[in-house]
Every structure is written in C-alpha cells, then in structure tokens.
C-alpha cells in the first residue's frame, strides 16, 4: 500500500471498481492488432505497452503507473539534472569569489549578493529534483511569485547605474539565472502533472485525484522550501531597494579608477593648498581604523581646519569602506597602499604629507610611509595595531563569523529593521552607525582577515625595515585599552621606536580605542597635529618650529 486513501466520491469509486482487474474491459471498435503493433510509438506506447482491449486496468499502487513511462517526463528530469549541475558549478565559483577572485569574476559591490542569487537557484532546482514525481500546485504558485520577484530585482539592478556598476555582469547573470530556474521549476512540475494524469488514465482508467500520506508530506516539504526561498528573495529585494537609495547619496569628493580601471576609490580633500607666498602647505592624510574615516576622523579634521590646527587634509576610503568599491582578493596592505598612491596621483595630489591613522589603519599608513619616505614628514598613530597582534584580526574563528555574516547579509534583516524602526538613513548605511551591516564592509573585513597573518604581516614587517628613521613620529594610546591589556601596552611602547625622531607618546586615560570619541582624546590629537604639521611644513626646509 502507498498509504491511507481519502475517499471523496463513493459513487465514483464504485464506477472505478468495475474497471479493475477481473472485470471486463470496455468494448473497443479498434482491432487489437491495429492498437498495439501496427501503430508508431508515441507518448502512450512507451515503457509499458498497455491496451484496454487486451489487458485489464492496473491498480493505482502498481509501480508501472509512473509518469516516467513518458519520454517527455524523462527528458524534463534529465534536463533538470543538467541545470542543477551547471548551477552548482556557478555556486561554487561564487563561493570561491568571496575568498579569491577568479579572472573576470570581480564584483565591485558585495559578492555575497551574487552568491545569494546562486543559492536561490540551486535550492529551487534541488526541490524540483527531490520531489519531481509529486507535482504540487502550491509549489508552482510560489515559484511563479519567486520568478516575478527575481525579474523585478534584475530590472532594478539594470536600471540603477550604481547597482549596475557594483554588481557588473556576474551579479546580473546570477539574478537572471535564478529567475529562469524558478520558471523552469513551474514548467517541469506542470510536465510531470500532465504525464502523471496521462499514465493514470491509460493504465488505471482515470487520473488519480487522491494522494498518499507520503505524497502529502512531500507536497508540504516542497511548499515550505520554496516559501523559505521566497521570503529570502523578498528580503533581498528590500535590501536592493535600500542599496539603490544609498547610491543617491553623492560622495563629498571624487571617485578615481585604480588597478587598471578595475575598481574606484573615493578621495576627498579639503582646505588651503598654498599659503600666501604660493608655497605648498603640508596636507594631513587620514587613514581610518576598523571603521571608515567618515565615522569620526573626518569630523575631527574638519574642526582642526576651522580652528587653525591644520591647513588641509585628504582621505581615501579603503576598498569596500564607505563609497569605495571592493577590490579583488587577495587584498593586502601593499595592495591598499598601491591603490591609495594611484588615486592620489590621478587626483594630482602630492606631499608633503603628515599621516594620521587609527587602529588597523596604522598598518596601511606604515606601508605607505615606507614607500613614500621623502614625501612623508610625520606620522601620528592613534591607538595603533601592532603587527605582532595581527592574529586578533586574522583568526580563523573571526573569518568564519565574517563569512557567515556576509552570507546572510543580502537578506539584510538588521538593515531593513534599522531603516524602518530606527529611521536610519543612507548616510548611516554608507559610513555611519549601520555601515557594519553592509555586505561591502563585511567583505572588506573578511579580505583583511584572510591575509592578515600572511601577506599583510609580511608587508608591514618589510616596511619597518625600510622606514625613514628621521620621520617625525607621535603615538596616542587609549588608557582604557592599556589598563585592560598588558600585551597591548607593550606593543604600543614598541611602536614608539618605529623611527628615531619621536615627538611623544600620549596615553589618554579616559579614552577608548576610538580615542577621538572623548574631549581629552580630541585635544591630544589636535595638539600633536599642530606640532607635526608645523614641523612638516618648515622643518624639512631648515626652518623648524
């Protein structure tokens, strides 16, 4: 027995029982020879050659009653297997792209979006294969809805220039393919339903309208699986709309192509470039830490220009942060330095520089300083990360959590709720309080994690060996961080020996890792900046301060 049967119409069942084995089949005007052996093979003469003139009807439970008797159904299944294999290969490529970028597959936005669409396509085809012989009307309806939502995503992606620039061809292909696979599910399921009805009519006398308990369970599972895919696609559509709105927020500076025009870097400069005598002023070059420059250091630099502490500053967002595109993987400190140098060159910006960096950003500034020694007149490191502590950034556990966070970031429940409940705006999502939820930011941190203890450590160790020892240096440390971490204190002290020209080491007692979040921290930073910028402007020319 296939399961427990639900009897809807007793009269219909009695009629059907008359046609079961042991009963006289209905008369036929066609001779048996013509009906079975003289006709060309068609959909009704496949694996089981049944003729109601010569054979009794079969039981619905007989294994011979199968839609696989029809070549059309068998072809649909094999085509579904081929499409599943192709989709699986594409899904693997999207997984690999998160860790190392294959040629031609660089996505300038978040690669997790293309991965999300590839996952949706693969799940849809997997459901089709698992429950292939049990057609389900609710599953077809859900798949039609999913296909419509995915087509809407494709239209939005192609219509918004910022999304089209970020997703490039890989993202567009992923969403279009996912929509096609959802449509294929409908076609394959409808084909199976037709084939099932055809074979039941031919072999049992009528299409079977009843289902076994097992079949009802399969219908429920396929419906729930496609409903889950639909919820995910709906959330991705909401995030895509938020991303489209965020691209309406223009960057304060300019975007410059780097790395052979593969991606763009955002660069912003503000202040007076020349003094009254036409001499070039020293420019403060900011490098953000764990967050974008815009989340704190930008405002500090603006105030420093207003109160006369400095004359001019510039900053470039690292790839994946704020307005900058993501870079291909692997992305080390030396690659970041090259991208910054190229952006500055394309913008026509030249030194002398005073480098101001915080946290992990100090590693990037140190590599830049080693490569531009004559142009760098000073460095201010704000609670900097030491190369011996890169394991805190590059631990496998942190990398796995970042990958999981990135994999679910296209659904963006936290971003959607923040926009609806907390009223977060585009600025919050691009560089502010909600920027950590962005797939591009998560990807940038994952890139940082993957090479922290290998490529980046090598770059920083090399830069220390070739650093100009006459470069003016100041270090400002978090008092809270030092009190809670003895190793951090030892490494802060070691960083004061990067050069032989130490301006000073300040420990701001009440300041957290983001030292500028406190008034005493901001005052300490501006005080050191005034001295470094003054020395950088005149000291190299022999005047001093």
TrEMBL record:
Pfam families: DUF2417 (PF10329). Keywords: Membrane, Transmembrane, Transmembrane helix. Residues 1-21 have a biased composition (Basic and acidic residues). Residues 1-44 are annotated as: Disordered. The chain crosses the membrane at residues 78-100, 112-134, 141-162, 168-186, 219-242. This is Uncharacterized protein. The lineage of its organism: Eukaryota, Fungi, Dikarya, Ascomycota, Pezizomycotina.
């Amino acid at each position: 027995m296939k399961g427990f049967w639900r009897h809807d119409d007793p009269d219909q069942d009695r009629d059907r029982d008359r046609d079961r084995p042991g009963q006289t089949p209905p008369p036929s005007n066609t001779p048996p020879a013509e009906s079975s052996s003289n006709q060309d093979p068609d959909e009704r003469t496949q694996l089981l050659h049944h003729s109601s003139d010569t054979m009794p009807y079969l039981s619905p439970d007989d294994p011979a009653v199968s839609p696989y008797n029809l070549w059309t159904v068998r072809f649909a299944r094999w085509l579904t297997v081929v499409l599943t294999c192709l989709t699986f290969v594409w899904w693997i490529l999207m997984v690999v792209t998160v860790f190392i970028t294959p040629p031609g597959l660089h996505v300038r936005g978040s690669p997790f979006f293309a991965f999300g669409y590839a996952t949706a396509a693969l799940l849809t085809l997997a459901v089709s294969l698992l429950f292939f012989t049990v057609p389900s009307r609710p599953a077809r309806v859900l798949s039609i809805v999913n296909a419509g939502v995915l087509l809407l995503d494709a239209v939005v992606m192609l219509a918004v220039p910022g999304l089209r620039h970020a997703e490039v061809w890989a993202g567009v292909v992923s969403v279009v393919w996912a929509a096609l696979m959802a449509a294929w599910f409908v076609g394959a399921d409808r084909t199976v339903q037709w084939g099932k009805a055809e074979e039941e009519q031919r072999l049992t006398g009528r299409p079977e309208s009843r289902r076994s308990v097992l079949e009802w369970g399969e219908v429920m599972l396929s419906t729930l699986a496609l409903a889950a895919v639909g919820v995910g696609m709906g959330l991705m559509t909401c995030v895509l709309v938020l991303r489209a709105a965020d691209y309406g927020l223009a960057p304060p500076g300019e975007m410059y192509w780097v790395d052979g025009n593969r991606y763009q870097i955002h660069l912003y400069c503000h202040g007076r470039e020349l003094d009254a005598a036409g001499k070039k002023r020293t420019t403060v070059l900011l490098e953000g830490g764990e967050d974008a420059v815009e989340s704190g250091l930008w405002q500090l630099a603006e105030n420093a220009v207003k109160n006369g502490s400095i004359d001019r500053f510039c900053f470039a967002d690292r790839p994946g942060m704020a307005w900058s595109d993501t870079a291909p993987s692997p992305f080390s400190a030396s690659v970041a330095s090259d991208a910054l140098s190229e952006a500055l060159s394309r913008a026509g910006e030249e030194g002398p520089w005073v480098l101001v960096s915080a946290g992990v950003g100090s590693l990037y500034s140190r590599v830049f300083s080693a490569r531009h020694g004559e142009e760098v007149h000073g460095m201010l490191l704000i609670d900097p990360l030491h190369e011996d502590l890169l394991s805190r950034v590059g631990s496998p556990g942190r990398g796995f959590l970042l990958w999981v966070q990135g994999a679910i970031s296209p659904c963006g429940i936290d971003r959607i709720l923040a926009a609806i409940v907390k009223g977060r705006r585009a600025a919050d999502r691009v560089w502010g309080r909600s920027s950590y939820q962005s797939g591009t930011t998560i990807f940038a941190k994952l890139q940082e994690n993957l090479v922290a203890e290998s490529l980046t450590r090598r770059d920083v160790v090399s830069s220390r060996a070739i650093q100009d020892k006459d470069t003016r240096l100041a270090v400002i440390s978090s008092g809270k961080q030092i009190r809670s971490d003895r190793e951090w204190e030892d490494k802060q002290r070691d960083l004061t020996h990067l050069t032989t020209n130490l301006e000073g080491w300040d420990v701001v007692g009440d300041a957290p890792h983001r030292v500028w979040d406190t008034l005493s921290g901001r005052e300490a930073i501006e005080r050191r900046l005034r001295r470094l910028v003054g020395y950088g402007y005149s000291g190299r020319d022999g005047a001093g301060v």
